[in-house]
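During the reporting period the student researcher (J.K.) took over the structure-prediction task from the postdoctoral fellow and processed the backlog of single-chain submissions. One of the processed entries is reproduced below for the supervisory committee.
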Amino acid sequence: MTTTRASEQAYEQLVHHLRVGRFAAGSRLPGERDLSDELGVSRATLRAALGRLEAEGLVQRSAQRGWFVPRQVIGEPPSTLQTFTEMALARGLRPTTRVMRQEVRSATMDEAAKLHIAPASPVIQIDRLRGMDGTPVCFDVVVLPEHRAAELLEADLTNTSLYEELRTRCGISIHRSAYTLMAALADAELARLLGTTVGAAVLVGDEVAYTSDGSPVLIGFNQYRGDAYRFAADLYRPV
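J.K. obtained the following structure tokens:
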């Protein structure tokens, strides 16, 4: 077998392993010696195949630690309001959700002001750990007025869009979201939830979502892994 053909076959085998999920996003590939033995090629041939995968963005090389599968990076189309579930499905990924809190409590002064309700009014807080193809990506906290969204207390939010549940159960359709984004560092608890290290970069999104008549109905606080999320926007200069 020629070197070129051997490299092509090694490349095809590695692509297959990536497609079927043998090497998960964010995981480290076996060492070059073990991988070349498994594929029945020389290390030089293996490196040629890995180099091709690297050029296609399917693997990444670390001089000290070997070869890795990059984590899935999610991003929002410019000026488009999408739910996490919609973003995942649009990219052919499987959204996952672990609901960690779904209960009524009293609104804080800040929450009451943002939602245009009286201080200490009952609100529903929903905490969810969101993932893409099993990889934790975002810790999401949502607060809604209880008198408008009481039906969500009994909703199963593990495999559905919160916006869709709001629409079908509560008759509320989100029209726009005032969204701000800033950089921060993961503390110990957030690092544990997102499977990253303490001090790792995270992107923190704050939002207030409104209906078409301008009524605020939802406050969101989203903390994304910095290596797994990209925010895009169209920016214009005044004429």
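The committee noted the following: The first helix runs from residue 3 to 19.
J.K. will present the remaining backlog at the next meeting.
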